[in-house]
Automatic annotation (TrEMBL):
Protein name (record): dGTPase
Entry-linked SUPFAM superfamilies: YjbR-like
Organismal lineage: Bacteria, Bacillati, Actinomycetota, Actinomycetes, Kitasatosporales
Amino acid sequence: MAVARSALRKWEKVREFALGLPGAAEEFPWGESVAKVNKKVFVFLGVDDGSYPLGVTVKLRDEAAHAHAMTCPGAEPAGYGLGRSGWVRIPLEEQGAPAAGLLCDWVEESYRVIAPKRLIAELDGH
C-alpha cells in the first residue's frame, strides 16, 4: 500500500502544480482528469479512484527530456497515436517511478509546448 500512497501523493503534487500554471484549467473528458491551457490538453492525469494505475501523460518535444522519460519504469509512448507527436505516459506506481519534482518539470515542458506565448511570458515573469 505504501507504493500506492506515495504514487497518490506524487499525483496530487503534479495535479496541483499543473493547475497552478497560468491559464490552466481542469476538465474531465472521458471521465479522466486533464489539465488544459487555451482549450488544449497539456497533461493527461487519468483517474485517482484506483480503477486504473496512476500515471501522467505529457508532451515532451525536447529530445533529452523525452529520452529520459522513456527510461522510467513502465513508461511508454501514449496511445491513440499520440506517442508519434511526443506524448509519453509515465506510470507512478512502478518501483523507481520519477520524483514529483521531475514530473513537474516535464509538466512545465509540456505546458510550454502548448500554451500561448503570452502565458509563457507570464510564467517566466514569476
